[in-house]
TrEMBL record:
Region (Disordered): 289-312
Gene3D superfamilies with a match to the protein in the record: Winged helix-like DNA-binding domain superfamily/Winged helix DNA-binding domain
Superkingdom: Bacteria
Protein name stated in the entry: Uncharacterized protein
Pfam families the UniProt entry points to: Regulator_TrmB (PF11495), TrmB (PF01978)
Length: 312
Protein backbone atom coordinates (compact mmCIF):
# COMPACT_ATOMS: atom_id res chain seq x y z
CA UNK A 1 0.00 0.00 0.00
CA UNK A 2 1.49 3.36 -1.06
CA UNK A 3 2.30 6.18 1.32
CA UNK A 4 0.89 9.68 0.72
CA UNK A 5 3.85 12.07 0.78
CA UNK A 6 1.88 15.19 -0.24
CA UNK A 7 2.47 17.96 2.34
CA UNK A 8 -0.51 19.04 4.44
CA UNK A 9 -2.32 22.18 3.30
CA UNK A 10 -1.15 24.11 6.38
CA UNK A 11 2.49 23.26 5.53
CA UNK A 12 1.97 24.56 1.99
CA UNK A 13 0.20 27.74 3.07
CA UNK A 14 2.75 28.84 5.69
CA UNK A 15 5.63 29.78 3.33
CA UNK A 16 3.20 31.64 1.07
CA UNK A 17 1.75 33.48 4.06
CA UNK A 18 5.28 34.59 5.02
CA UNK A 19 5.60 36.10 1.52
CA UNK A 20 2.47 38.22 1.90
CA UNK A 21 -0.19 35.88 0.50
CA UNK A 22 -3.51 35.77 2.34
CA UNK A 23 -4.81 32.32 3.22
CA UNK A 24 -7.39 32.56 0.41
CA UNK A 25 -4.70 33.58 -2.11
CA UNK A 26 -2.41 30.79 -0.95
CA UNK A 27 -5.12 28.15 -1.26
CA UNK A 28 -6.13 29.40 -4.70
CA UNK A 29 -2.51 29.40 -5.92
CA UNK A 30 -1.95 25.87 -4.59
CA UNK A 31 -5.14 24.73 -6.32
CA UNK A 32 -3.87 26.14 -9.62
CA UNK A 33 -0.55 24.33 -9.18
CA UNK A 34 -2.41 21.06 -8.70
CA UNK A 35 -4.69 21.53 -11.71
CA UNK A 36 -4.80 24.12 -14.47
CA UNK A 37 -6.14 25.82 -16.41
CA UNK A 38 -9.35 25.95 -14.38
CA UNK A 39 -12.21 28.36 -13.75
CA UNK A 40 -12.87 30.20 -10.52
CA UNK A 41 -15.78 27.81 -9.94
CA UNK A 42 -13.41 24.83 -10.16
CA UNK A 43 -10.94 26.48 -7.79
CA UNK A 44 -13.76 27.04 -5.32
CA UNK A 45 -14.89 23.45 -5.66
CA UNK A 46 -11.36 22.14 -5.04
CA UNK A 47 -10.63 24.42 -2.07
CA UNK A 48 -14.08 24.72 -0.53
CA UNK A 49 -13.75 28.51 -0.45
CA UNK A 50 -16.76 30.79 -1.03
CA UNK A 51 -17.02 31.83 -4.68
CA UNK A 52 -16.72 35.57 -3.92
CA UNK A 53 -13.48 34.96 -2.03
CA UNK A 54 -12.12 32.84 -4.87
CA UNK A 55 -12.77 35.59 -7.45
CA UNK A 56 -11.12 38.19 -5.21
CA UNK A 57 -8.12 35.93 -4.54
CA UNK A 58 -7.62 35.16 -8.25
CA UNK A 59 -7.83 38.85 -9.14
CA UNK A 60 -5.18 39.70 -6.53
CA UNK A 61 -2.96 36.81 -7.64
CA UNK A 62 -3.18 38.11 -11.21
CA UNK A 63 -2.06 41.57 -10.05
CA UNK A 64 0.84 39.98 -8.14
CA UNK A 65 1.87 38.09 -11.27
CA UNK A 66 1.25 34.73 -9.58
CA UNK A 67 -1.36 33.57 -12.12
CA UNK A 68 -2.91 34.71 -15.38
CA UNK A 69 -6.10 34.10 -17.33
CA UNK A 70 -5.46 31.93 -20.37
CA UNK A 71 -9.00 31.74 -21.87
CA UNK A 72 -11.87 34.24 -21.98
CA UNK A 73 -15.16 32.37 -22.17
CA UNK A 74 -15.18 30.94 -19.63
CA UNK A 75 -12.17 32.56 -17.95
CA UNK A 76 -9.66 29.92 -16.95
CA UNK A 77 -6.54 30.58 -14.89
CA UNK A 78 -3.07 29.07 -14.93
CA UNK A 79 -0.34 29.63 -12.30
CA UNK A 80 3.06 31.15 -12.86
CA UNK A 81 5.37 28.34 -11.78
CA UNK A 82 7.17 28.76 -8.42
CA UNK A 83 10.63 28.57 -10.03
CA UNK A 84 9.68 31.62 -12.12
CA UNK A 85 7.45 33.50 -9.68
CA UNK A 86 9.61 33.59 -6.56
CA UNK A 87 12.92 34.70 -8.12
CA UNK A 88 10.91 37.47 -9.81
CA UNK A 89 9.36 38.42 -6.44
CA UNK A 90 12.80 38.33 -4.81
CA UNK A 91 14.26 40.70 -7.41
CA UNK A 92 11.36 43.09 -6.97
CA UNK A 93 11.55 42.93 -3.18
CA UNK A 94 15.29 43.61 -3.14
CA UNK A 95 14.79 46.63 -5.39
CA UNK A 96 12.05 47.92 -3.07
CA UNK A 97 14.32 47.43 -0.05
CA UNK A 98 17.14 49.38 -1.69
CA UNK A 99 14.79 52.19 -2.63
CA UNK A 100 13.30 52.30 0.87
CA UNK A 101 16.76 52.38 2.43
CA UNK A 102 17.82 55.28 0.19
CA UNK A 103 14.71 57.31 0.98
CA UNK A 104 14.71 56.64 4.74
CA UNK A 105 18.44 57.35 5.04
CA UNK A 106 17.64 60.96 4.17
CA UNK A 107 15.66 61.42 7.40
CA UNK A 108 17.60 63.65 9.78
CA UNK A 109 18.57 61.93 13.01
CA UNK A 110 19.58 63.76 16.20
CA UNK A 111 23.26 63.40 17.08
CA UNK A 112 24.16 60.97 19.84
CA UNK A 113 21.14 58.70 19.48
CA UNK A 114 22.99 55.62 18.24
CA UNK A 115 21.70 52.61 20.13
CA UNK A 116 23.29 49.39 21.32
CA UNK A 117 21.49 46.44 19.76
CA UNK A 118 21.35 42.99 21.33
CA UNK A 119 22.13 39.88 19.29
CA UNK A 120 21.20 36.33 20.25
CA UNK A 121 22.10 33.06 18.59
CA UNK A 122 25.09 31.83 16.62
CA UNK A 123 23.46 32.45 13.24
CA UNK A 124 22.61 36.10 14.00
CA UNK A 125 26.07 36.74 15.45
CA UNK A 126 27.99 35.35 12.47
CA UNK A 127 25.63 37.07 10.03
CA UNK A 128 26.43 40.40 11.71
CA UNK A 129 30.19 39.69 11.62
CA UNK A 130 29.94 38.83 7.91
CA UNK A 131 27.98 42.01 7.23
CA UNK A 132 30.53 44.16 9.03
CA UNK A 133 33.44 42.63 7.12
CA UNK A 134 31.63 43.11 3.81
CA UNK A 135 30.75 46.75 4.50
CA UNK A 136 34.15 47.88 5.81
CA UNK A 137 35.98 50.46 3.71
CA UNK A 138 38.94 51.41 5.94
CA UNK A 139 39.74 48.67 8.43
CA UNK A 140 38.50 45.51 10.11
CA UNK A 141 40.01 44.79 13.52
CA UNK A 142 39.04 41.54 15.24
CA UNK A 143 40.03 39.83 18.47
CA UNK A 144 38.76 36.23 18.58
CA UNK A 145 39.63 32.57 18.81
CA UNK A 146 40.82 31.15 15.49
CA UNK A 147 38.00 28.56 15.37
CA UNK A 148 35.42 31.38 15.43
CA UNK A 149 37.05 33.03 12.40
CA UNK A 150 37.26 29.99 10.12
CA UNK A 151 34.00 30.65 8.28
CA UNK A 152 34.99 34.32 7.80
CA UNK A 153 38.49 33.65 6.46
CA UNK A 154 37.55 34.05 2.74
CA UNK A 155 35.73 37.32 3.45
CA UNK A 156 38.65 38.66 5.51
CA UNK A 157 41.16 37.83 2.79
CA UNK A 158 38.85 39.41 0.20
CA UNK A 159 38.59 42.57 2.34
CA UNK A 160 42.38 42.81 2.49
CA UNK A 161 42.53 42.35 -1.29
CA UNK A 162 40.21 45.34 -1.83
CA UNK A 163 42.47 47.56 0.28
CA UNK A 164 40.84 47.28 3.71
CA UNK A 165 43.31 46.96 6.59
CA UNK A 166 42.59 43.63 8.29
CA UNK A 167 44.17 43.17 11.73
CA UNK A 168 43.47 39.98 13.67
CA UNK A 169 44.34 39.21 17.30
CA UNK A 170 43.88 35.46 17.53
CA UNK A 171 43.67 32.89 20.31
CA UNK A 172 44.46 29.24 19.57
CA UNK A 173 46.99 27.26 17.57
CA UNK A 174 49.82 29.52 16.26
CA UNK A 175 49.93 27.54 13.00
CA UNK A 176 46.77 29.40 11.97
CA UNK A 177 49.00 32.35 11.00
CA UNK A 178 49.94 30.48 7.82
CA UNK A 179 46.26 30.40 6.78
CA UNK A 180 46.10 34.21 6.54
CA UNK A 181 48.66 35.42 3.97
CA UNK A 182 48.11 39.08 4.82
CA UNK A 183 50.40 41.80 3.51
CA UNK A 184 50.99 45.14 5.31
CA UNK A 185 49.14 47.11 6.49
CA UNK A 186 47.07 43.98 7.23
CA UNK A 187 48.43 41.51 9.76
CA UNK A 188 47.56 38.60 12.04
CA UNK A 189 48.94 38.41 15.60
CA UNK A 190 48.69 35.51 18.00
CA UNK A 191 47.36 36.86 21.28
CA UNK A 192 50.43 37.79 23.35
CA UNK A 193 52.55 36.03 20.72
CA UNK A 194 51.46 32.51 21.76
CA UNK A 195 47.66 32.40 21.38
CA UNK A 196 47.00 30.96 24.83
CA UNK A 197 43.30 31.13 25.72
CA UNK A 198 43.32 33.65 28.59
CA UNK A 199 40.06 34.21 30.49
CA UNK A 200 37.14 33.94 28.08
CA UNK A 201 39.41 33.93 25.04
CA UNK A 202 37.84 30.73 23.74
CA UNK A 203 34.37 32.27 23.34
CA UNK A 204 34.69 36.07 23.11
CA UNK A 205 34.71 38.02 19.84
CA UNK A 206 35.32 41.75 19.45
CA UNK A 207 35.01 43.42 16.03
CA UNK A 208 35.56 47.07 15.14
CA UNK A 209 35.39 48.63 11.68
CA UNK A 210 36.15 52.04 10.20
CA UNK A 211 36.16 53.90 13.57
CA UNK A 212 32.36 53.75 13.25
CA UNK A 213 30.95 50.37 14.25
CA UNK A 214 31.65 47.75 16.92
CA UNK A 215 30.47 44.31 17.98
CA UNK A 216 31.25 42.28 21.08
CA UNK A 217 29.83 38.83 21.72
CA UNK A 218 30.21 35.79 23.91
CA UNK A 219 29.52 32.70 21.81
CA UNK A 220 29.05 30.41 24.81
CA UNK A 221 25.62 28.94 25.61
CA UNK A 222 24.03 29.81 22.28
CA UNK A 223 25.66 33.21 21.95
CA UNK A 224 24.73 36.72 23.08
CA UNK A 225 26.26 40.02 22.08
CA UNK A 226 25.85 43.70 21.33
CA UNK A 227 26.33 45.78 18.19
CA UNK A 228 26.50 49.55 18.01
CA UNK A 229 27.51 52.69 16.14
CA UNK A 230 27.55 54.65 19.39
CA UNK A 231 30.83 56.53 19.12
CA UNK A 232 32.03 56.26 22.75
CA UNK A 233 31.43 52.49 22.73
CA UNK A 234 33.09 52.11 19.31
CA UNK A 235 36.09 54.09 20.60
CA UNK A 236 36.29 51.73 23.58
CA UNK A 237 36.34 48.66 21.34
CA UNK A 238 38.88 50.20 18.95
CA UNK A 239 41.10 51.17 21.87
CA UNK A 240 40.91 47.65 23.32
CA UNK A 241 42.05 46.04 20.08
CA UNK A 242 44.69 48.70 19.45
CA UNK A 243 46.23 47.98 22.86
CA UNK A 244 46.12 44.25 22.11
CA UNK A 245 48.18 45.03 19.00
CA UNK A 246 50.68 46.95 21.12
CA UNK A 247 50.93 44.05 23.57
CA UNK A 248 51.40 41.53 20.74
CA UNK A 249 54.25 43.62 19.32
CA UNK A 250 55.85 43.90 22.79
CA UNK A 251 55.58 40.15 23.39
CA UNK A 252 57.13 39.44 20.00
CA UNK A 253 60.30 41.23 21.16
CA UNK A 254 60.35 40.71 24.94
CA UNK A 255 58.47 37.48 25.66
CA UNK A 256 61.39 35.88 27.52
CA UNK A 257 61.84 38.91 29.80
CA UNK A 258 58.08 39.15 30.45
CA UNK A 259 57.86 35.45 31.29
CA UNK A 260 60.73 35.83 33.73
CA UNK A 261 59.13 38.83 35.42
CA UNK A 262 55.45 37.81 35.47
CA UNK A 263 55.37 34.11 34.62
CA UNK A 264 54.10 32.52 31.39
CA UNK A 265 51.04 34.31 29.96
CA UNK A 266 51.55 37.00 32.64
CA UNK A 267 50.11 34.51 35.14
CA UNK A 268 51.40 36.19 38.32
CA UNK A 269 50.10 39.55 37.09
CA UNK A 270 46.74 38.17 36.00
CA UNK A 271 46.21 36.39 39.30
CA UNK A 272 45.84 39.86 40.83
CA UNK A 273 43.06 40.95 38.48
CA UNK A 274 41.30 37.99 36.86
CA UNK A 275 38.33 36.34 38.59
CA UNK A 276 39.71 33.47 40.66
CA UNK A 277 38.14 30.69 38.52
CA UNK A 278 39.64 32.19 35.33
CA UNK A 279 43.07 32.57 36.95
CA UNK A 280 42.94 28.93 38.11
CA UNK A 281 41.87 27.79 34.63
CA UNK A 282 44.79 29.71 33.10
CA UNK A 283 47.21 28.09 35.55
CA UNK A 284 45.93 24.63 34.53
CA UNK A 285 46.14 25.51 30.84
CA UNK A 286 49.74 26.66 31.18
CA UNK A 287 50.64 23.44 33.01
CA UNK A 288 48.91 21.36 30.31
CA UNK A 289 50.76 23.20 27.54
CA UNK A 290 54.03 22.64 29.38
CA UNK A 291 53.32 18.90 29.67
CA UNK A 292 52.40 18.62 25.98
CA UNK A 293 55.57 20.47 24.96
CA UNK A 294 57.69 18.25 27.21
CA UNK A 295 56.11 15.08 25.80
CA UNK A 296 56.58 16.32 22.25
CA UNK A 297 60.24 17.17 22.86
CA UNK A 298 60.80 13.80 24.54
CA UNK A 299 59.25 11.98 21.60
CA UNK A 300 61.39 13.93 19.13
CA UNK A 301 64.55 13.11 21.12
CA UNK A 302 63.55 9.44 21.21
CA UNK A 303 63.00 9.37 17.45
CA UNK A 304 66.31 11.18 16.87
CA UNK A 305 68.15 8.69 19.09
CA UNK A 306 66.53 5.78 17.32
CA UNK A 307 67.54 7.22 13.96
CA UNK A 308 71.15 7.57 15.07
CA UNK A 309 71.21 4.00 16.37
CA UNK A 310 69.89 2.72 13.05
CA UNK A 311 72.57 4.72 11.21
CA UNK A 312 75.27 2.98 13.24
Amino acid sequence: MGTNTTPAMTDLIEPLRSLGFTDYEAQAYIALLRESPVTAYQVGKQTGLPRANVYAALETLSKKGACQPVTENPVRYAPVRPEVLFPRMQTGFEAQCRRAAEILAEIDRPDGEEHVWSLRGTEAIHAKIAGMIASATQHVWIKAHERLLRDHRPALLAAAERGVQVVLIVFGDPSVVDEYPLAPPSRIFMHENNGIEVGLGYTLVTVAIDFAEALTVNTAEGGIGAHTRNLPVVTLAESLIRHEIYVAEIFARFERELDAEFGPALLRLRQNYLPAPQAAALDRLIAERRRRKKNKNGKQEEETGHGRAMAK
